[in-house]
Design goal:
The chain contains 5 helices and no strands. Helix content is 65%, strand content 0%. The termini are far apart. It is mainly α and 118 residues long.
Length: 118
Amino acid sequence: MSRTHIRHELSELEANLRKELGNLLALHQLSIDHTMLSLSTLIDEMTAAKLCDEPLFMRLTQLDAAICQLDIGLYGLCADCEAEIESQRLNDDPLEQRCTQCAADYVHEHRHELRLSH
């Protein structure tokens, strides 16, 4: 997959996440300009508004990371072992940060934390 194609996919995903964010902000009666602010500023604003537990917050942070990785040539490399993330995983979720093995290890290592939070 070319960088141009990846960037296009990430841009489309960003547009969809910004729409979702508009709905979330309206629900919480917050007036944050989600259409013009950078992703990092949006993440800061969501943190200040105590919206860090929202699944959308995690998706926006993953998107910000993916765009940064693409910019510096590290997109598609596992955040843990630095091996290439399987192309099918990236096709399924272009924001994926871990290869299959490291993702399984992460879930296994953090399963107690995950149980406590649900």
